[in-house]
Amino acid sequence: MNALKIGWSSRDVSTNKPVNIPGQFAMRISRGIMDPVSVTALVIDNGEDMVAFLSADLVVFRSNLLDEIRAKVKQCQPDFPVEKIIASATHTHTAPGHWTDKEGGKETGSSTPQLNCVPHDGVEIASSDEYRDFLSSQSAEAICEAYARRTPGGISFGYGYAVVAHSRRVVYFDDFGQRGGSKNGFMIDGHAKMYGNTRDDNFSHYEAGADHFVNLLYTFDQQNKLTGAIVNVPCPSQCSESRYQISADYWHDTREAIRREHGNIFILPQCAAAGDLSPRLLHYKEAQARRFRLKYDSKTPGQTIDKDLGERKDIAERLAAAFSEVLSWAKNDIQTALPLKHVVTTVELEKRLITPAEYQFACERLEALQKEQFTTEGTPLERLNVNSCLVSQRGRFERIITRYKTQQQSPTLPTEMHVLRLGDVAFATNRFEYYMDFMHRIQARSPFLQTFVVQLTAVPGMDGGTYLATERAVEGQGYSACLFCNLVSPKGGQQIVDETVRILQELHGNGN
Predict the structure, then answer these.
(1) pLDDT tens figures, 25-80
(2) Phi, psi (5° rounding) for residue 385?
(3) How far from chain centre, in Å, is Cα 287?
(4) What are phi and psi of 262, to 5 degrees?
(5) Which residues, in sequence order, are CB contacts of 454 under 8 Å at separation 6+?
(6) Domains of the chain: which residue ranges?
(7) Alpha-carbon distance 405 to 402, whole Å?
(8) Coil, helix or strand for 35?
(9) Is the dihedral of CA 213, 266, 310, 194 positive or negative?
(10) DSSP string for 332-372
(11) Containing H/E element for 260?
């Protein structure tokens, strides 16, 4: 067990260029910067093994972005074990897109169509390839700088509580899909619906609860001064998800709130498993509006705070309070020498297979969509919105057809996964928008005091995260749990659980 060395770095990766913002079915072209998006790197090693965490204010990693980052790190640090990089996205829906222009959004999980697929006359759109090169270079530089800055230090950890996420899947007594629910290239509704109407007479319940744990890992220098922290929250960063300005969403407000109290320290956000969770409140909406009006508007006379900005401030205050509360006692147990073991493995996950009926449905709907013409009416931006939605639907049906034709030859999905031990703390990653129940299965069976589950971690290749739904969700259908949204079956989700737990037990059993 050797002494820890710790290094931090960060980069602003915002751009004022008019870039496509992924995260919705239609293309959104950015209109400047609301607040900065960044990448943050943390390197920890003990001379025997190491980890390089990279957190990015992105919706997801795709289009060979991880491969490019690893290659550029290797260029500046030839001896760097680039397979030890754990890169994850906060899932902000207001970050620049980095999908490759040439492929046209053919990545398996991509929803937003790409530049060369959609007529965009009259609309200036900057190249995603250009931004991806900038993003990968800045990310690599941050990792290399963090590596070079490693100095002896210590870590401490703990957990706190903050209400951030809520279940976003509404369940009805009847089959909502049979009485007007969506059945198109975006979603297939059943008894469940993403963001469904809770005032419906057939509203039954939310499909899942929520997780209010905040897992925290703090770093300190040799004088026990706080230098930074990993803040792991089971909630995507999507309060401002429909805006047209670049933004880190609630993580911007959270960083500012924490730094007001603790100085200009590094903050590395991680999104824990939250495929069925979001910061959006689905009932008590009027009460929430009153809360924000009384809590925030009185501080800015004559102004009414927007709902999403109120949500962001509210969340930031709770996370900052949890951060300070845990630090107040966790700093009494700073450890400077710990066992560190980082396992990188590839698991073959069972795919969610397309049925013959679903294949026929996709063929019929694609044929109809291919007959639709691009609109020529409206403003350039209005045309872009309509036409990009059309291309998005076509693309989703095309991918279903391709999956059906190839699934017998490749029934599993190879997926890179990381499991890390750092003393009494563990980290476990997956590439998906992973449903909360899977995380609880891992944490409940883990032999470690705390297990940080990190979703939407980057993997080699073109594809990135898609939803990985539980058994009950697939039965209820709806967006995030239907044929378009799940590359991997619930059994594949459990494979991640079982393999993660197996490795965790092995790491724990090896002792100090």
Answers:
(1) 899 999 999 999 999 999 999 999 999 999 999 999 999 999 999 999 999 999 99
(2) -65, -50
(3) 29
(4) -120, 10
(5) 86, 88, 232, 270, 271, 272, 427, 428, 429, 430
(6) 5-166+208-349+415-459+500-509
(7) 5
(8) coil
(9) negative
(10) TS-BSB--EEEEEEEEEEEB-PPPHHHHHHHHHHHHHHHHS
(11) helix 250-262
